[in-house]
Design goal:
alpha/beta, Arylsulfatase, C-terminal domain, Alkaline Phosphatase, subunit A, 468 residues, 13 helices
């Protein structure tokens, strides 16, 4: 049996039709919706660590990354993305290495340029790895320089500043001469992934990882996809401000949401191309297929645009997970057991009958989900100097020093509209202690300093979870 893992970056769970609708309206994802009819769909899937690189380290190793011990990286050729934003530790075996050593042919098709920066090693163990260049600020091209008219079209003058202007300038250089839909990144990723399958039909068994940086910002998308959600004319808006949107012009916010929605629909279309290629090659009956995302992205939710670890929001922390079994097990069913990213590693290894050289932290979950058995009673998610704990009843978020807590009762009719930390201090204390236990009883000094130097978020509780 073969294994295919597909990971999208910044794909919101509620922007996939099978999971409902985004606050601004339904997003069209017919291919993923169709896949759900053939898959076991998980409704309570969460990351292990965030953002981009810590997430992939957890998925690629099955090991816990939180609480980011020895992970305060300052590497040449990269920016300090977040604690844990670094390479996979040399002493940790990767999924690709484990599969390769068990006789699998391994492949990685990706445009997630952070994985391929100087000092990174996320391709370790793959017999073939393909880096499709040009996303974001990847120094893929040095010219030609975009005109001011181009800059004003893609980045409204009122949003231009010392950070966004060079960002969009590099993006426009990288996409110069892009004229066909097939030239866009997500299309290229899935076209090359399908080509890899064609070229490796002689493999007895294979493990393929497909990484699409889309629908991560900037949200450049062919116009016909955007017009599905906003048919107005005028300048575009494709960047994430990582800021409050209360003062953003409504038409710009609508355009932003439309560009994101259009890019999600485009990702769905080209995933469909890849899926149909698997079907045409007769691979569906002999391949385990997993589809997920690293995290979501707030686009006007609670008047914020961006993603962050504090205050945490389900638009970012809830991730989609679909598992299609080659024998049709679980097809069309839903599961509400709590699953995390590093559990995917354990499940893929169990399915393939591959034993890791050392124990991993992830827990295999597919058969357990079919039987309705929980594999864990909570999920702890680390992001920088903040931690989030999710149970069936509670969504808890605070800084790692225990201050500034948010507590939401998931049994309430509108759970995220009211922070109940002041009303339930005993729950705050219990969940913080759980986060502390999952961190091994304490946090690295640099992580505590990040928490101490960060302001409390508006609306957080005045209570401190940490005993004085």
């Amino acid at each position: 049996m073969n294994v295919v893992l597909v990971v999208f970056d910044s794909l919101r769970k509620d922007c996939i039709g099978l999971y409902g609708a985004a606050p601004w309206g339904e997003v069209r994802t017919p291919h993923l919706d169709a896949l759900a009819e053939e898959s076991l769909v998980f409704d309570r899937a969460y990351p292990e660590s965030l953002p981009t690189l810590p997430t992939r380290r957890a998925i690629y190793t099955g090991r816990q990354v939180y609480p980011f011990v020895n992970a305060d990286f300052r590497l040449k050729g990269d920016f300090v993305g977040a604690p844990g934003w670094g390479p996979i530790p040399e002493e940790q075996a990767t999924l690709a290495e484990m599969f390769r050593d068990a006789g699998y042919r391994t492949g990685l098709i990706a445009d997630v340029y952070h994985m391929f920066k100087p000092s990174k090693n996320y391709w370790r163990g793959f017999d073939q790895w393909m880096f499709l260049r040009g996303q974001e600020k990847d120094p893929y091209r040095s010219g030609p320089e975009p005109t001011q008219a181009e800059m004003d079209y893609w980045l409204p003058p009122e949003l231009q500043d010392e950070h966004k202007v060079p960002f969009i300038r590099q993006c426009l250089k990288n996409m110069h001469d892009r004229t066909r839909e097939e030239d866009y990144f997500n299309a290229r990723v899935f076209i090359e992934a399908a080509r890899w399958l064609e070229q490796n039909r002689d493999a007895g068994r294979f493990f393929l990882t497909v990484e699409s940086f889309d629908p991560h910002e900037p949200w450049f998308v062919p116009e016909h996809y955007r017009r599905m959600y906003d048919d107005s004319d005028g300048p575009q808006q494709v960047v994430s401000g990582y800021s409050d949107t209360a003062t953003m012009r409504p038409e710009l916010l609508r355009r932003t949401q439309a560009n994101y929605s259009g890019l999600v629909t485009m990702c769905d279309r080209w995933f469909g191309y890849f899926y149909e290629a698997m079907a045409a090659m007769g691979l569906l009956d002999e391949t385990l297929l997993l589809v997920t995302s690293d995290h979501g992205h707030s686009i006007g939710d609670k008047h914020y645009m961006g993603k962050r670890g504090y205050p945490a929001d389900p638009s970012v922390y809830d991730v989609p997970l679909l598992v299609r079994h080659p024998e049709g097990k679980g097809a069309g069913r839903r599961s509400d057991i709590i699953v995390q990213h590093h559990d995917l590693s354990a499940e893929m290894l169990r399915f393939a009958g591959v034993e890791p050289p050392e124990p991993i932290d992830g827990i295999a979950f597919f058969e357990e989900a079919l039987a309705g058995r929980e594999i864990r009673d909570h999920a702890t998610v680390g992001w920088g100097g903040a931690v989030t704990v999710v149970t069936k009843q509670w969504f808890f978020n605070c800084k790692v020093d225990g201050t500034g807590p948010f507590l939401y009762d998931l049994s309430a009719e509108a759970p995220y509209e009211r922070n109940v930390a002041d009303e339930r201090p005993e729950v705050v204390q219990e969940l913080y202690q759980q986060a502390l236990a999952d961190a091994g009883g304490g946090y690295p000094d640099y992580l505590m300093n990040i928490a101490r130097n960060r302001k409390d978020a508006p609306g957080c509780s005045a209570l401190a979870a940490r005993p004085v």
